[in-house]
Amino acid sequence: PPHRKSNESFRLILTTLVGIVVGYFVGASLPSTSLLK
């Protein structure tokens, strides 16, 4: 069904966005923690 296909694509986009946000915060927090040390 097309509903399942749209749901899978939505999950793929959501997973990608979450990965980008997590990677951004990790990359932004690593230099700050190393500077604080």
From TrEMBL:
Keywords: Membrane, Transmembrane, Transmembrane helix
Domain of life: Eukaryota
Entry's transmembrane regions: 12-30
Organism per entry: Nymphaea colorata
Keyword Transmembrane helix: yes
Record's protein name: Uncharacterized protein
